[in-house]
Amino acid sequence: MSKREKFNQDPSIQISKMNVIIPFSPDVPCDSNGQRMWWAFLASSMVTFFGGLFIILLWRTLKYLWTVCCHCNAKKKTVHRITTGDGIKRVDKEDPAASEVGWMTSVKDWAGVMISAQTLTGRVLVVLVFALSIGALVIYFIDSSDPIESCQNFYKDFTLQIDMAFNVFFLLYFGLRFIAANDKLWFWLEVNSVVDFFTVPPVFVSVYLNRSWLGLRFLRALRLIQFSEILQFLNILKTSNSIKLVNLCSIFISTWLTAAGFIHLVENSGDPWENFQNSQALSYWECVYLLMVTMSTVGYGDVYAKTTLGRLFMVFFILGGLAMFASYVPEIIELIGNRKKYGGSYSAVNGRKHIVVCGHITLESVSNFLKDFLHKDRDDVNVEIVFLHNISPNLELEALFKRHFTQVEFYQGSVLNPHDLARVKIESADACLILANKYCADPDAEDASNIMRVISIKNYHPKIRIITQMLQYHNKAHLLNIPSWNWKEGDDAICLAELKLGFIAQSCLAQGLSTMLANLFSMRSFIKIEEDTWQKYYLEGVANEMYTEYLSSAFVGMSFPVICELCYVKLKLLLIAIEYKSDQRECSTLINPGNHVKMQEGTLGFFIASDAKEVKRALFYCKACHDDISDPKRIKKCGCKKYTQKTKTAAYKKIRLACCFDCSRSERDCSCMPVNVRCNMDSPRRDIPLSAVSVNDCSATLRAFEEDQQLALSPKKKQRNGGMRNSPNSSPKIMRHDPLVIPGNDQMESMDENIKKYDSTGMFHWCPSKDIEKVILTRSEAAMTVLSGHVVVCIFGDVKSALIGLRNFVMPLRASNFHYHELKHIVFVGSLEYLKREWETLHNFPKVSILPGTPLSRADLRAVNINLCDMCVILSANQNNIDDASLQDKECILASLNIKSMLFDDSIGVLQANSQGFTPPGMDRSSPENSPVHGLVRQTSVTTGANIPIITELAPLAKPGKKLPVISFSQDKSSGTSIQMITELVNDSNVQFLDQDDDDDPDTELYLTQPFACGTAFAVSVLDSLMSATYFNDNILTLIRTLVTGGATPELEGLLAEENALRGGYSTPQTLANRDRCRVAQLALYDGPFADLGDGGCYGDLFCKALKTYNMLCFGIYRLRDAHLNQQSQCTKRYVITNPPYAFELVPSDLIFCLMQFDHNAGQSRTSLSHSSHSSHSSSKKSSSVHSIPTTNRTNRVKSRDSRDKQNATRMSRVGQEKTWFTDEPEDTHLRTIQIKPVNTLSINQVIQFKSTSSLIPPIREAEDEC
Question: 3-state class of 75 per DSSP?
């Protein structure tokens, strides 16, 4: 019997040698003695490594010896230089082989290219080698479950075949690396080379011996160290933190797995000197566990090393592994912790748009934006908001994002980085909104940052729509330098300084308008109040917003007033403007156009309503289906027409120029239009750009220009005709009658026409530039000048203050839709150094003066007659230089309280210059027969709630039998609380300090406070809502800018970008046509044609009457705060009511906001009236100077009332004989301690004196340079 048969039959011997002898399988030709062959595998690796190392060292040694021995010969082989006859040395070319590249060098370069990651082939090869190394490691993990050494047939073992293929590839790649290596010795000692030495040769031995040995195949785990390099080759890792994190992790994991493989080998094999008797069966993953608890110094003891080799290895591994664990793990955790929490990428949702919001992202700016953007009144907002900012949000902002997680996402990054723009999918975004820091200390730097953001975004995706906030108006010009910036495609820049100062300027013309407009483009929820307080009516108006909607085809052919009345009465909607496009001209926004404009198909309307759903009535209205419906809520989409997008698109193509309302023909075929006007229309000037904001159609403006030309060039003809002509904007029955024509009026009228110049666009009054020294008034000059009905601007600033752009404040007050005599004089009170810096943009505006001083000086304020001004504006350029938010408005608040605490002489207060009334277009207020609308006044005439008394219309204007009272006060002093003021604030919470008698809580929102509701305070924060309003409808910004800026257009912005100043231009039909646009005014109900409605009438009746009679569109009420109390003594403060309902009851003290048509006749009427007043005043000889009030008159102010009463009867009779008519109305019909007494003739004489000097004669220095 053989030994093999005895071994198989003796089970005791087989069990005792189980750990030593390899398992035997009869189908595998293995060693019959069961002897291990691990030394053969190890020897192949060692021989390869040390053999190659020996050859490299031997080669280097021989090369060194050869170099030393042949050193002399090498010196002789120098380059021979031959000197030619010209003295030029040249190289002898007797060795051409030296200049050629050897084949070894070529092969080396080729191998270097193949393994380099700089080429596509090299990158593919590197990635493939790494992937195959990981595959070989995975095969090792699979084979680790088998015994360390086992007999396997290469032709039947699939894993061995795959491992063999991998190693053949590794061998080829090793050859390439060896050829490309410059230093063969260092290459031989590299980690990757060592891995190949101990993993590749054993595979070939396995095929030869038909047995497998796990051996050192675990060294393939060291290839994981190159993982970060592979990711960098694939452009996956780009940041230093990510590269460092992957490096640390790959080194830690590869060391861990490699050490676990060594423990697995020695523990499952045993010690060789112990004849492998002390081995223990441990799986690879148990060894991984053992190494982890060893590195972390925990050492549970459940698994431990038994072999001597294993324990010796653990001793050294603890030293290195503990150090690595203690240093790598904390750093890895720190990098992971510092990794951007919001560093992912946005995943777009099909069917849902998204916008990107960037710039100044703070809790305040984001909360204000989201509150308005996601307001419920916007119907369904199916837009996702993606915020992008380079700073992670704080806890409060993060909580805000979580509350809106369904529609808001935040990503950390910068729009200046194209990678971050790609993360938020800017190319597929519907728009990008850039918020600005309104409270920054350097506005120009903030604007520069936002402009750079625009450049970066446009550079990445030129077609993206961008809406950005800008702080300074002059920085908007830089946006025009961006080639892809196109406002026609929806790009918009919301200039906060332009709009803020424009709102304040409009308040000088109609106090409270800033509050009304700010509430219209802001989304406010309706707050219902049951108590009958002023807040109830104010909040009802606050719930209204501005919307746009296409008008139904049922309105086609109707004029704008008819449609406006129908919408208000039947649909409960307020239509204030329309927009249409045509092939001949660009988009035009018509604000309250006249009867001559007929509606076309596809016209877009601007509505004031409380909900977006209500505006749909204008689109769904059908005369056949809805004519007999009284409830507007029942007006729904009917089956008569299909309102599809295709219909809307086709409607735009059908739009043509407006037709003449009189003959129902087009403008070119209009039979009622003069021939010369039609000829001018046939050849329009192409070089003059059309304004983007025109108010009336060309037919009306050309007719108006033709009439103005006839008046200017033929004044004598007008005089022969009795001064009577039709007004284009008035009723056909109303004729102009001017009985106060005096000799020499022709020359004066021509002179007025010559000095009335406009800028090149015709949108603003213009004059040649003036030196600042010519407009500076000293305190004595200002005190001697009769300043009244003017605007006082108290400005805080110094040399270092940032410019706020006062041009944006002056431009609305110099709009060309005012006649020259209607312009209010503007007096700036502030630091001369600061105003010199602003003067460059102001020197082309007429009627501007400067009083160097400080707004906190009462002497300066009295010198400019602040108690006689129409409006006092308080601005500050130093607000953003203070860190404490509560102190940012300290200067404005102190100036406001200072003015309110001032006391003035009541005899001066009687003058109240701001009682210059206006008349609806076509009405002549200078004649008692043709001036029934003497109740119409400019806003600041009677509507401030101030206590300064005014003289009302004289007795001949009153109805028969009606005694006309004069309002006076029991006090001899008038306080500064009666002065109309508007104060600019930066911090909303500081509004509580303006009014000491209000009960506003400090936490109350700005729009709910009394100063804001009354129009006496304005904060730039209300403009935040314009961002979302502009996104949903860019036409809203156009309309707001038109109403606020006085007519600023993109063409004008382009001119200002070129010259930074207005440029004068000749009056052409096109530029003069731009004057014919609406302006906001206020309508008084105390007297006049609407007096019957003022006492208990309905607002809807007033709306319809004003619209039908004078084309005046009413849209709000400025009411006394306590008017609902019906008390005799009431507070003089007023508040704003936006778009009251039809049945809203009126009171006589109400002032009505209205859009007034441009009056072509006002200039001629005012000239005649002014000359008449001046003639009457001169004949009475009550003043020795037309510039100042005589000293005798100033001393006569303190005379006793008895002496003044003795003169009243005589002067009253003289006034009655001269029949001098004025259209001045009392400022308030419900004043404190009102007394009704006979007309004071001294007061009348003072009014005559004041009106003649203020309306005809300019102030000192202004007369020299008046344009």
Answer: helix
